[in-house]
Design a protein that fits this description.
The chain has helices at about 40-55, 75-80, 85-105, 120-130, 160-165, 205-215, 230-245, 275-285, 285-295, 305-330, 345-360, 365-380, 395-410, 420-440, 445-455, and strands at about 5, 10-15, 25-30, 60-65, 135-140, 140-145, 180-185, 200-205, 220-225, 250-255, 260, 265, 300-305, 460-465, 465-470. The chain is an alpha/beta fold and about 475 residues long. The strands form five sheets. A four-stranded parallel beta sheet has the order 4-3-9-10, sandwiched between helices.
């Protein structure tokens, strides 16, 4: 069956046809790493974890890129406040985020490029835009000329007046047009910098994503994604500079997810209205958090509600009980009579599940199909325990495999990080605190024993200026 995606660019649902048959190339805008990830950040990561799993079940090869912006004004300011370098601050929060993804059962991206690792390529693209007459230099800064790209605004559908209002938020009288945006910023005193043809400086935010996505995926991308707050100006600017540079369509399908709200307002670091992922994982299992974030369609905002997450916990527990009954039936003693029993067609739920995801990744409907399957299997098995007739064993085995398949697509299979896993997490964090105290007391031999002992258990410690991060080794 065909897959349909709501394309922000055309504002309609379209059949998905990849540029290369059998291959899907996806770029999702990642974090600016100046703090821990919150639930709003992880919504998109969970969504695209499911999307990638779904495409793979459909037989596609998936190449997924999620970047890190590891240098910008906020990172520089926070690093100065904490007395560390911007590079070490960014490294700490990148490690923390990757740990959060692992705890949430999110498959790591095929590529996690960082802006500072691609300065050479960024400079080359900016030079090309200047040569094409699409950018200009002013006192060591380089700006993209919006007037050079006539279709500017085609993604956000904003009027000229609306774009001018947004442009006036950060006024720079040196720009030819208030809408023009920075491709390269000259360094201020004490800031990190890289040498360029225009002097010491660093890349602007928008050019980073264009360069990294084109490098790893080429053009046109199949799917470019991000939060709805990135449509303008970030993604609008990406389109302008990328298409001006390549002369080709930048991305064919644009997908944007809505925010997660807390206390009626969008979660945002700038306002402090956030619920950090690692704090949430101390209260809830990652499986319940995933299902809660997927229980509303990705284009609809969610108001975070702990009670509803607890409802997901209870629903998952009922599902586990039903699966355990199936295991008991399959491992127990069967009724070897010739009794023939007609069972429901469990395959219907598989069709419903994938049909939901084929319709603009409708995860609420997919989740409902999964729970309907589990409920039906549980109802059927209650009629046959403790000795099910042999005629139902093969259908029950098939139902068990189907449940495992749908759980894998939703990413709710059991793993470290559930209620049992949170105990492991607490134990490791306690040992890290003990180790920190030993190091402060210069008892390095004992501290090293803790690192070594955890290493034998497959737990890797990474020390950074901002603290210690742990992860499971490969």
């Amino acid at each position: 069956m065909p897959i349909y995606i709501h394309n922000t660019l055309t504002n309609r649902k379209e059949e998905f046809v990849p540029q290369v048959e059998g291959k899907v190339r996806i770029y999702s805008c990642g974090l600016t790493v100046q703090g821990y990830a919150h639930i709003g950040h992880i919504r998109g990561a969970v969504l695209f974890d499911v999307i990638r799993r779904f495409f793979r079940k459909k037989g596609y090869e998936v190449i997924y890129v999620q970047n890190f912006t590891d240098i910008d004004d906020k990172i520089i300011a926070k690093a100065k406040h904490e007395g560390v370098s911007p590079a070490s601050l960014a490294e700490y929060y990148i490690s923390a985020y990757l740990q959060d993804e692992e705890e949430m059962g999110i498959m790591q991206a095929d590529y996690n490029p960082r802006a500072t690792h691609h300065i050479k390529e960024i400079i080359e693209v900016v030079e090309a835009l200047i040569r094409k007459g699409c950018a200009y230099v002013v006192d060591g800064d380089v700006y993209f000329s919006v007037a050079s790209f006539p279709s500017y605004g085609k993604l956000s559908k904003r009027s000229l007046d609306e774009m001018m209002i947004g442009a006036r938020v950060e006024v720079d009288e040196r720009k030819r047009d208030p809408r023009d945006f920075a491709l390269w910023k000259s360094a201020k005193e004490g800031e990190p910098y890289w040498e360029s043809p225009w002097g010491k400086g660093r890349p602007g935010w928008h050019i980073e994503c264009s360069v990294m996505s084109i490098k790893y995926l080429g053009v046109p991308l199949d799917i470019h994604a991000g939060g709805q707050d990135l449509i303008f100006p970030h993604h609008e600017n990406e389109i302008a500079q990328s298409e001006a540079f390549t002369g080709q369509t930048f991305a064919r399908y644009w997908l944007h997810w809505a925010p997660v709200n807390l206390k009626g307002e969008k979660m945002a670091k700038s306002t402090g209205n956030v619920f950090i992922v690692r704090e949430a994982l101390k209260q809830f299992s990652p499986q319940a958090l995933r299902l809660y974030l997927l229980s509303s369609h990705y284009r609809s905002p969610i108001d975070f509600d702990g009670e509803k997450v607890e409802e997901m916990e209870r629903a998952l527990e009922r599902a586990r009980e039903a699966e355990e009954k199936v295991d008991i039936a399959l491992k127990g003693t069967a009724d070897y009579s010739e009794r023939i029993v007609e069972l429901p067609d469990f395959g219907v739920y598989r069709e419903q599940f994938y049909s939901a995801l084929e319709d603009d990744f409708n995860t609420p409907r997919a989740i409902a199909s999964y729970f309907s399957l589990v409920s039906e299997v549980g109802r059927v098995i209650d009629d046959f325990l403790p000795k099910p007739p042999t005629s139902v064993l093969l259908p029950l085995w098939s139902a068990k495999k189907l449940i495992q398949e749908l759980k894998w697509v939703l990413g709710i299979e059991e793993r470290r990080g559930g209620k049992e896993g949170r105990g492991i997490e607490g134990f490791v964090e306690l040992l890290i605190k003990v180790r920190d105290k030993l190091r402060k007391q210069k008892l390095y031999e004992l501290a090293d024993e803790i690192r070594s002992g955890l290493g034998t258990l497959g737990i890797v410690l990474e020390d950074h200026p901002g603290g210690t991060i742990w992860r499971m080794g490969k």
